[in-house]
Sulfate transport system permease protein CysW
Amino acid sequence: MAGTAATLGRARSAGHYQGNPATREARWVRYTLLTLGLGFFALFLLMPLIAVFTEALRKGWEAYAASLMESDTISAVKLTLLAAVISVPLNLVFGVSAAWAITKHDFRGKQLLITLIDLPFSVSPVVAGLIYVLIFGAQGWFGPWLQAHDIRIIFAVPGIVLATVFVTFPFVARELIPLMQAQGRDEEEAATVLGASGWRTFWHVTLPNIKWGLLYGVILCNARAFGEFGAVSVVSGHVRGQTNTLPLQVEILYNEYQFAAAFAVASLLALLAVATLVLKQFVEWRASRAVVID
């Protein structure tokens, strides 16, 4: 540390360290890049967000509130929350387990497991929904057996939950794997040598080190669960008041030319997106502070 401080001091005295930026492009280049970045932000992110709330409130607050209190919308909110409440904890358990196995143990098929975790990123959500229809639909592989036992998966809540689990599958694991790989195994191995059990090691050693990354993955997983459209649309059947989530409710209202109501419901998803960004920024800030303190 003393040598580094001395080096920086010599650099300052020699005029080599004056708080200049890391790059030395001309000022017009920096301003051009900044303008392009802000322009894309305004055009593709800020303006659509403003448009959603403008259209939602076009007929006033009373019409806005009435649209949100409509029975089908309330049912869509409840179903969306239910799908998220079930799928996020399931993916939390899987993500932590998969990250632990991949980063703390060596076994055959590790690379295959990593590849399978990334599968939902490469498969279209619509294709994922069709796969569930093929497996659990009336004409699917298990369709006759399910009908014989009066079990409904497709065009019912279980199918929506399955589709949501699939599309949110990688988020927690993909956030934890690089973090746990960077941390290595030294602390867990030391705890094991001292006699700690696997669960005790995880709870007192691993979890404190990954808590902010874990929370970050859960936030992204939850946002994805709320906003999923393609896979859920295929397996839901669009039964009003029963199998419509918030994104599907927006589509139905818009197709029925109820534009104010459609944008009112869409504003709920927009608010969720804004809340997700705020939580994401908070988690990143706390994680960076934790690194500095350590």
